[in-house]
Amino acid sequence: MERGTHRPELTAARHRLYYNALHVEDFAGKFKREDRRITGPSHSVVFKGKRVRELSADAAVSVVDVFKAYRNAGGQETPVLRDIDLDIRKGEFFSLLGPSGCGKTTLLRILAGFEQADSGAVVIGGRDMTGIPAHRRPVNTVFQSYALFPHLSVADNVAFGLKQKGIRGQDLKNRVARAIETVQIGDFGNRKPDQLSGGQRQRVALARAIVNEPEVLLLDEPLSALDLKLRKQLQVELANLQETLGITFIFVTHDQEEALVMSDRIAVMNRGRIEQLGRAEDLYERPRTAFVANFLGSSNLIPGRIREVTPEGALVQTDFGPLRTTQHAGLMPGQEVTLSIRPEKLRMERDDETEGNEVRARVDDIVYTGAENQYLLEAHGQRLVAFQLNADIGADEDFDYDEEVALYLPPASLVVLEEG
Amino acid sequence: MTPRRFLATLGPGLLWLAIFLIVPSVIMLGYSFLTRTDLAQVGAPWTLENWQRVFGYDALFRQWVPDNLRVLWRSLWLAALSTLLCVLMGYPLAFYIAHQEARRKNLLLLLLIIPFWTNFLIRVYAWILILRPFGLVPSTAATFLGMVYAFLPFFVLPVYSSVEKLDWRLLEAAEDLGATPARAFMTGVFPQTLPGLVAGILLTFIPALGMFVVSDILGGAKTALIGNLIQNQFGQAGDWPYGSALSFLLMGVVLLGLWLYARFAGEKGLEELL
Questions:
Q1: Could you tell me the pTM of the whole model?
Q2: Does B177 contact A148 at a Cβ distance shorter than 8 Å?
Q3: Superfamily of domain B67-273
Q4: CATH top-level class for A56-285?
Q5: C-alpha distance from B53 to closest chain A C-alpha (Å)
Q6: What is the pLDDT of residues B86-118, one digit of tens each?
Q7: Taking CB atoms and an 8 Å cutoff, what residues of chain B touch A147?
Q8: What is the 3-state secondary structure (H, E, C) of chain A?
């Protein structure tokens, strides 16, 4: 924190501003967990601090060594899920995150019972689901395209599942009304789906699923068809709804922000495998692979070789010179590694004092995105990216094109990846 | 809309309708009130006699002999049965075809259409060869089979086109909500195929009701249908006024059916249908 205060050109006012900004940034991690106030037009909606809660020890869903391959006409096998093994806890908001084709939707469809695994098992609520058809599973799905029945009214759509269970009369009416009220579409009960907007249809799909009070709710990219603003609003509503209902949510998405905002835990999937599983901040702060480092946010990847390992950390020889990281577990001298550092963790400075972990770089391009400045830097023939918060840099850009800067790479922010 | 615009946009359609539908119908309606003269010509005087005959009034013996209505009834039955068999065979067939891979699908559709390359009469005659060893020609059963054969493609094609467009996710949605596969089909899939199903039924039932070629060739004299009766008036009997009146009876029955359907399915149903 001291490092930022060394700037001689700062006036007293700017100085204070800068200090505060840094201060907030440093505590952002903890602060955000406590009270995530959504700013902007929907600021009345507030997260309820759910991220601090403890996860239940009981598994709502267990996926055991699930393997699945598709065969094409020539009999060639393409594996879509390779030995997936995971436990989803009771009442958890769990996200399956990955690019298209990574197998996340297939996994969800296997949980729903629309597809069968080639091998392995799925256990939901303590019962082995092998051979149990979709209509007898204690799960409900919110489909990507909603899949509402076009010939039925909103109320009849929502009532569909309960009717299958033989619920009739006043009980049915009350429960449908309550579900419709929960998702705030009370006025649209008599409309047909094609008379609703995308966001309203989304709510109907949600009501149609939760009215059945399933043990697990499966959501297949339910927000992807909506525009950005609505999506953000519904993210918050979904997370709150999940907490109110206490139903286990399994949420499939390719949108990393969506997953980070809502989930208790996230499984990042790539090419049919789970690359990393953990809480949002674990995945972001300690990505294990280059894929995770770049799929969740972006990262600077720096190849190197371990020179020495001490209890305080490791020293890695790179093209930029030796860089120190606080990581040491499992590292051996001589090992080829890749270091990863988030663009917002790089500190850009003008001073020439060398305190180690510094890289000389030249500003190649500056992208102004509003909330932050993104600097594309060139150092020893390699591209590095650094983000500076708008609050840090004042009204104007702090650094200029072609300016020579010193980049400070905090040892605690340099993550050693498992693979190159 | 200015008159000019009106003519430019709706004009061609109206002209077409006028030339091929309204004018002929009016002429026929006129004929049905005229008299058959010598040498099978149509002429004066104006009369209601044709219409009396249509409904079975025998002017000579002054009594009602509802033979025509019996023929009409039989035609309705046979058309309905043929349509039913087309539905039972064609509905699953449409699903089967729609479920194949693209290449196989096109092949099957081609097989469905290939018979149209051969003259219809010849194809019906071919059925004589097929059915004769079983002693079925001539018989009502042979007419029935011939009709199903003739109209099956007309039923399958519209159903196929709506099955092709099916949103199968509704089936999954219904099963996901606890519906058995059968129930899921009825709620998730069946309603989506209704437009194609209704179109197929109409394309089968209406022509089957007026069919005369098949019954003529395969049915023999005993299974005369309303179509044979009408054709006979315009052909051998040379009684165009009576034939015209009979045609209007048939048209009336079809329109009544459509009207009932419209009342049952609502205006929207008829709109979708057309």
A1: 0.76
A2: no
A3: MetI-like (1.10.3720.10)
A4: alpha beta
A5: 47
A6: 999 999 999 999 988 889 999 999 999 998 898
A7: 167, 169-170, 172-173
A8: CHHHHHCCCCCHHHHHHHHHHHHHHHHHHHHHHHCCECCCCCCCCECCCHHHCCCCCCEEEEEEEEEEEEECCCCCEEEEEEEEEEEEECCCEEEEECCCCCCHHHHHHHHHCCCCCCEEEEEECCEECCCCCHHHCCEEEECCCCCCCCCCCHHHHHHHHHHHCCCCHHHHHHHHHHHHHHCCCHHHCCCCHHHCCHHHHHHHHHHHHHCCCCCEEEEECCCCCCCHHHHHHHHHHHHHHHHHHCCEEEEEECCHHHHHHHCCEEEEEECCEEEEEEEHHHHHHCCCCHHHHHHCCCCEEEEEEEEEEECCEEEEEECCEEEEECCCCCCCCCCEEEEEECHHHCEEECCCCCCCCEEEEEEEEEEECCCEEEEEEEECCEEEEEEEEHHHHCCCCCCCCCCEEEEECCHHHCEEECCC
